[in-house]
Design goal:
- This protein is globular.
- The chain is built from 12 helices and 19 strands.
- Helices cover about 35% and strands about 25% of the residues.
- Strand 13 and strand 14 form a beta hairpin.
- Strands 9, 12, 15, 16, 17, 18 and 19 form a 7-stranded mixed β-sheet that branches.
- Helix 10 crosses helix 11 and helix 10 packs across helix 12.
- The protein is α+β, with helices and mostly antiparallel strands.
């Protein structure tokens, strides 16, 4: 009977692994296409994964709570559907394991020593074993990279020092092969790199925290842990710089106050300031495409689509970032409809996987909490994020044909955090100024 392998799906551009939080089936169960098999959680969203085929669950390879790399086989479905065949997949690997154990035990220690002398390889004396990489490393290594490291007797500590050329500095095949070649030719020594990496790790070790008798200890939930890891990773990967401008948004405030009731009556949607901010950002990104990009090693990937993520606070206090796809192609009505729908789904944990994927730029609204300004952390693998502050009435100097006057205006701060690896101050400053100009030049006579 033919078997179908269920693998860990890729749930986002920067997602390399997911946690199995729940299995809805067990071995021996008969499933139909679209039957929910398991629930997987990432730092973005929790998703139920359906079966793509009909059949019988022959094997479940990972229990609930397992953190599994993308592409790893999670379960095997026997598409023949015969219950008697469900034991076969379990028996065969067991037999192979037994044969492997017998073969290993039958090898003589002397033979192994001779092998080491012939190949010139030796077991790593210090450092964690590469086979424990999943339990001890915060980086993801593909099975191919792990196998090469094992064959070359590269310990986990040594592997951690290799700078990868993949997304988020992920070590790829060519990276480890180049490292091995350099090591053999004497261009670099593992001792030097390991010492450097060790020194770096020491400086990053958090201080010990004392707990007093009246202190309360709150364990982070799974999502909070993932968000924390993602934010720390972003600060380590990107060279963060923040620029700030103050924008006079009096015209758009007057327009919204005047037209919000008519807008809701005509389109059935409440309009906030966020759709207007999103429209202004989309227009600026179209003019400054370098900000709508990602970094992959030494390559800059300019994104064709402008997909703007909007940070939304969930009832549990955690954040999620649904994405408005092709925002530059949509008018204010279209953006408002998308934003209201996604925000409502986010607050009710109803977002689909595709609704949080593919973002190329993010907006976070500090103003919703009456905050004036903020320095947000970039949402990897993007290269910039905009924070919008609270709109406040302030006295401002206006130039008029008859001279300068002081007037009450609606002002707000816009702060842009950008990745200085590819966005220089001139580009970041010009882009941020363009967003402010788009908001300040909002047409007060714009029809609903």
């Amino acid at each position: 009977m033919s078997n179908f392998q269920i693998v860990m799906p890729k749930l986002g551009e920067s997602i390399q692994e997911g946690t199995i939080t729940k299995w809805f089936v067990k071995e021996g169960d008969t499933v139909e296409e679209d039957t929910n098999l398991f629930e997987v959680a990432t730092d973005k969203v929790d998703s139920e994964i359906p079966s793509p085929v009909d059949g019988v669950i022959a094997r479940i390879l990972f229990p609930e709570g397992s953190l599994v790399p993308v592409g790893e086989v999670l379960a095997i479905i026997n598409m023949g559907g015969e219950e008697s065949s469900t034991e076969e997949p379990s028996e065969k690997p067991a037999e192979k394991d037994t044969e492997k154990e017998e073969k290993t035990s039958s090898e003589k220690p002397a033979d192994k020593e001779n092998e080491k002398e012939e190949t010139g390889k030796s077991e790593p004396v210090e450092g964690k074993n590469i086979e424990n990489v999943r339990e001890t490393s915060t980086r993801f290594y593909s099975p191919l990279v792990r196998n090469i490291a094992k064959q070359e007797n590269i310990s986990l500590d040594e592997l951690e020092t290799i700078k990868g050329s993949g997304a988020n500095e992920r070590v790829q095949k060519n990276d480890i092969l180049e490292y091995i070649q350099n090591r053999k030719s004497g261009k670099s020594t593992p001792e030097t790199k390991t010492e450097s990496a060790t020194a770096t790790r020491k400086t990053m070790t958090p201080p010990a925290v004392s707990v007093g008798s009246g202190d309360q200890i709150i364990e982070m939930d799974r999502v909070r842990k993932l968000i924390a890891d993602h934010m720390v990773m972003s600060k380590q990967v990107s060279a963060h710089v923040t620029a700030v401008v103050e924008a006079d948004v009096t015209e758009l405030v007057i327009w919204r106050n005047k037209n919000k009731e008519a807008f809701e009556k005509k389109y059935g949607e409440k309009i906030t300031f966020m759709p207007i901010f999103t429209e202004a950002v989309a227009a600026a990104l179209a003019e400054f495409p370098m900000v709508n990009s990602s970094v992959d090693g030494d390559r800059i990937i300019l994104k064709k689509d402008i997909n703007i993520g909007i940070a939304v606070a969930k009832p549990d206090g955690n954040l999620i970032v649904p994405v408005i796809k092709n925002a530059e192609q949509k008018n204010l009505v279209g953006i408002t409809k998308d934003l209201n729908r996604l925000a409502n789904a986010a607050r009710n944990n109803k977002l689909a996987i595709e609704e949080i994927q593919g973002g190329t730029f993010t907006i976070t609204n500090f103003g919703s909490f009456r905050n004036l300004i903020g320095t947000p952390i970039i949402n990897q693998p993007q290269v910039a994020i905009l924070a919008t502050g609270s709109i406040e009435k302030k006295p401002a100097v206006l130039e008029t044909p008859t001279g300068d006057v002081i007037a009450i205006r609606h002002l707000m701060f816009l702060s842009l955090s950008y990745d200085h690896r590819i966005v220089d101050g001139a580009l970041g400053g010009a882009f941020l100024r363009k967003i402010a100009d788009n908001l300040e030049q909002f047409d007060i006579n714009r029809l609903v």
